[in-house]
Amino acid sequence: MKYSIIGCGRISSHHIESAQKNKLDIIGLCDLDINKAYELAKKYNLDSAICYDNYKDMINDLLKKKILYQEDFKKNFFTSVTTDSGSHFVIAKYLLSNSINTLCEKPITLSLKECDELIEISNKNDLIFGVCQQNRLNNSSQLLKKAIDSGAFGKISHASVCVRWCRGKEYYSQDSWRGKWLSDGGAMMNQCIHGVDLSRWLMGNDVESMYSVIANQQHDYLEVEDLGVAIVKFKSGTILTIEGTTNIYDDNLEETIAIFGENGTVKLSGEVAENIVYWKFKDTKVNNWIKDIKEVNYSSVYGDGHSRIFENIILAIKSHTTPYVDAIAGRNALENILAMYESYFTKKLVKFPLSNECSTKKYINYNLSKSNFMKKPLNM
Ligand SMILES: NC(=O)c1ccc[n+]([C@@H]2O[C@H](COP(=O)([O-])OP(=O)(O)OC[C@H]3O[C@@H](n4cnc5c(N)ncnc54)[C@H](O)[C@@H]3O)[C@@H](O)[C@H]2O)c1
User: Fold this and answer.
1) In angstroms, what is the span from residue 269 Cα to ligand 1's centroid?
2) Helix/strand/coil for 6
């Protein structure tokens, strides 16, 4: 299967390694800064891949050179979008409108309306459209999902998700898009989206309402939040608490998810919730499920899920089935985070489903690092 990538920055190496592991034919690399594409090609010995500085030129030129054929589009080709979050919409729209299967980095977009537009185009053109929310594919998450689906927890009282990571000035100053409403969002949208995704996927979609507070406590050079706390109520009565931050001194501490049911308690933790640290059920059969699960120690905060995401996208393209982490999964995680922003800025309990007018663009005039930046709730 043929493959190309748009955006050759920090995360791109995980895409290329996953492409190589899954034996994809890497035909094009694109970055506005073409030197980054050349560097990536050199690092991974991609001698036959062509480098570009414009993604439209890349697709057209690959077609012109007969490296890529129109007939490849639906069954034999996909492209990763690994650019800054604010540009996902425009690039994915171009790809999907031209009938190209697309794997987009998280967050899928920064606006629900834009996300809905992409989903509509993808459905209309009958395409595979996946999102890199890779922690769902950790063995630990998969087993927890199996326990929930089996009913082993009984009635779930509550759950909690915490993403306690560390990002300092040297991280944010790497690129001008980081930590801005228009191109990134804050700790919740960029870093903690992984934990939010896990919780939404595990706990289900019957979200009733959410109340949230966000704040900027330690990053006075950013306009966005570095801390977010939310209480989510499900229609079933289950309560979920979310805590996400990039303020931990002086390293990533944990991504932890814990679920408390009348017949079971589970806690996953580690840098990306990759390990089962507590697993206890009334049903002894379920207790035994973890016998063969080994502790993992990932070399990076991205875990090893990208390769599994690729494996699944390839399968979805070949068998023309929905990918495991599809665009709806991307939309759900985005909805939760935009609901946190909406609740904070309106000082109100937010009811679900969230209006698709919600977008980070609504907050571009607000700088959370300035104290008393807003004395009364926004009139939205
Ligand atoms: N899934 C994960 O665990 C994970 C981890 C890190 C980053 N990400 C996501 O990946 C995306 C990229 O993050 P990053 O850290 O690699 O950023 P980065 O700034 O290091 O890389 C982005 C690259 O995209 C290029 N680019 C921007 N617009 C472009 C365009 N129109 N055409 C071609 N190239 C363009 C930039 O020049 C840059 O080199 C973000 O959305 C981020 O949220 C996901």
Assistant:
1) 27
2) strand
**How many separate domains does the chain show?**
2
pLDDT class of 370 with cuts at 50, 70, 90:
confident
Name every residue whose Cβ is closer than 8 Å to that of residue 49 and which is 6 or more positions away in sequence: 26, 27, 28, 29, 41
Residue nearest to atom 18 of ligand 1 (CA): 9
- Ligand 1 pocket, mutate which of 40, 79, 83 (most atoms under 8 A from CB): 83
Say whether both 152 and 244 belong to one domain. yes
Q: Which residues contact 167 (CB under 8 A, 6 or more apart)?
A: 187, 191, 226, 246
- Whether 10 is in the pocket of ligand 1, judged by its Cβ within 6 Å, is yes
> Taking 50 as the threshold, does the pLDDT of residue 90 lie above it?
yes
Query: What is the structure's pLDDT at 339?
Result: 98
Are 69 and 156 part of one and the same domain? Answer: no
With respect to residue 375, please indicate whether it lies within any of the assigned structural domains. Answer: no
Pocket lining: 136 vs ligand 1, CB cutoff 6 Å: no
What does the pLDDT read at residue 295?
A: 82
Q: Locate 141 and state its tokens.
A: 């998450």
Q: Is 105 in the pocket of ligand 1 (CB under 6 A)?
A: yes
Both 224 and 309 in one domain: the answer is: no
**Are 234 and 251 found together in one domain?**
yes
Q: How far is the CA of 177 from the centre of ligand 1 (A)?
A: 9
Q: Is residue 160 part of a domain?
A: yes
For residue 369, being part of any structural domain is answered with no
Whether residue 102 is contained in a domain is answered as yes
Q: Is 31 in the pocket of ligand 1 (CB under 6 A)?
A: yes
Per-residue pLDDT reduced to its tens digit, 102-158: 999 999 999 999 999 999 999 999 999 999 999 999 999 999 999 999 999 999 999
Could you identify the atom of ligand 1 that is nearest to the CA of residue 90? 31
What pLDDT sits at residue 378?
55
The mean per-residue pLDDT over the stretch 191-217 comes to 97
Cα–Cα distances in angstroms (integers) from residue 202 to residues 138, 142, 175, 211, in the given order = 13, 9, 33, 20
pLDDT in tens, 329-369: 999 999 999 999 999 999 999 999 999 999 999 999 999 99
* Domain residue limits at 100: 2-135+305-326
Ramachandran bin of 185, using left for φ above 0, alpha for ψ from -120 to 50, beta for the remaining angles: left
Report residue 294's pLDDT band, with 50, 70 and 90 as the boundaries. confident
Rounded to the nearest whole angstrom, what is the distance from the C-alpha of residue 105 to the centroid of ligand 1?
Answer: 8
Residues 141 and 27 in one domain: no
CATH number at residue 54: 3.40.50.720
